[in-house]
Amino acid sequence: MPTNQRESLIYTVMMCFCMVLWMSIYNVSIQMGGLSLVSVEEGWLGFPIAYVFAMCCDWFVVSKLAKGVAFRFLVKPESPALHKILAISSCMVVGMVVIMSLYGAAEGCVHTGAWDGLLMQWLVNIPRNFIMALPFQLIVAGPLVRFLFRKAFPVGTVLPQPAV
Predict the structure, then answer these.
(1) Cα–Cα distance measured from residue 22 to residue 40, given in angstroms and rounded to the nearest whole number
(2) Is residue 158 helix, strand or coil?
(3) Are the C-beta atoms of residues 32 and 42 closer than 8 Å to each other?
(4) 151: Cα within 13 Å, side-chain hemisphere
(5) N or C: which end of the chain has fewer CB within 10 A?
(6) What is the pLDDT of residues 124-158, one digit of tens each?
(7) CA nearest 62: which of 96, 89, 12?
(8) Is this prediction's pTM over 0.90?
(9) Is 33 helix (H, G, I), strand (E, B) or coil?
(10) Summary mean pLDDT of the chain
(11) 3-state secondary structure 111-139
């Protein structure tokens, strides 16, 4: 887990990249009726804007709320690291799924012009995305990004402030 604000930003960049890319490909594959090279290509093409939006939502809104909920209701500061990781990650997934499912529904409305179906599509997207995002976060993305993050940035190598 990140130990300061700079590490937190680097970690968020890495985690968002992994989750948004995977979920973009997943959602496009559902819309296209299955996983194919075309659905991967379409997911990749839609990725940059979704990534910027997700980063802003994660950094400025969801992260603070998720940590607040996790530490108020699920874990304490002295809880084991694994418990804190699972609690915060799960809360992050809930918040990001709600927001990014709305983003996906709005993106679909832009393509089809059927804005009257926005609310229904959002409500359909939430459980569909949740059943993929939570296991992917806990089993694949979380452990992978934490491993890569610590390999690239051992504890103490990212200073909280630049050296003068």
Answers:
(1) 9
(2) coil
(3) yes
(4) 7
(5) C
(6) 999 999 999 999 999 999 999 999 999 999 998 88
(7) 96
(8) yes
(9) coil
(10) 95
(11) HHCCHHHHHHHHHHHHHHHHHHHHHHHHH
Map tokens 């973009």 to a residue. 24
Neighbours of 149 (CB within 10 A): 19
Burial of 6 (0-12, 13-18, 19+ CB in 10 A): middle
Q: Is 30 exposed, middle or buried (0-12, 13-18, 19+ CB in 10 A)?
A: middle
The SS3 assignment for 4 reads: coil
The whole-angstrom distance between residue 29's C-alpha and the CA centroid of its chain comes to: 18
Q: How far apart, in whole angstroms, are the C-alpha atoms of residue 54 and residue 103? A: 9
Q: What is the CA radius of gyration of the chain?
A: 17
- Cβ 142 vs Cβ 93: under 8 Å: no
Q: Where are the domains of the chain?
A: 5-152
Q: Identify residue 122 by its one-letter amino acid code.
A: W
Place of tokens 């496009």: 28
